[in-house]
């Protein structure tokens, strides 16, 4: 037979109400009593009834996360961190894919707000007003988007782009082309900001093309336009786009990195497996997912109104797609 809360109360020699408080609001119970209850629950193998606990606490025990594209390994990397941390905190995770559509993203946010205790929204494309409205109906944490008054887990894309430019300049490159990601993407704006500052600082020519879809097809589409500008290096918005660039350059007989260097961004698994291996910037995907859950739980558990926005470091990973430019350049 399943162990009940009454069995735990009997084992710990306390009331059923005390067991309930010790499990749902441990700060309201004396430490010695709480420890006795937790020890009894562990010894008996007691698992609280989530529905019953929800009636007491007013919580569902669920968290939501909205991502733009589940086909993009960037977001599956984030999800690993989210799910691992949520599981440690005894929360389930509902996942929704907006398919890079802003209207769908807003609809999913509103729908999830009714079913979960809080929502993490990854790289949101909707505008500030819509995000503030969502934050008004549920606990909200953003990943890779900065908005005053809303907690956020941020990956320092501007710093990553600065590292790419410094690496290319050190190799002797003086003419770079950047393939933009989505127009409304906060991450793309941050990468452009870091790119522009770094190229201005080093006196390097910068050409910007796009926006392009942040997918393999976007890289294929952008490659011929990039080559027509005669750069010594092509900087793609992300790794998936960079793979499309490498494929198209290979089809045209353009050698990478002998004829032109190529860089990506994100350091997804296949960046190290392609040929040649891709020079890129490592993003702390799982760490960002873990941080986003921590920020969400902090707000839920403490009711704190301060909106922490935490920046995580990024790191250049040098591989085989960058080298000194051709002598004629």
Characterize the structure shown.
By secondary structure, this protein is an alpha/beta fold. The chain is built from 12 helices and 12 strands. Helix 9 links the parallel strand 6 and strand 7. It is elongated. The mean pLDDT is 91.
Strand neighbour order, sheet with most strands: 2-1-3-4-5-11
| Share of residues in strands | 15-25%
Give the structural class: alpha/beta
Spell out the helices and strands N to C: HHHHEHEHEHEEHEHEHEHEEHEE
- Compute the average pLDDT: 91
Distance separating the two termini: 78 Å
Bulk shape? elongated
Q: Which regions contain 5 or more consecutive residues with pLDDT less than 50?
A: none
Outline the biggest β-sheet. 6 strands, parallel
Strands, count: 12
Rg of Cα set: 24 Å
Give helix % range: 40-55%
Counted by DSSP, the helix tally is: 12
Short description:
With 329 residues, this protein is of the alpha/beta class.
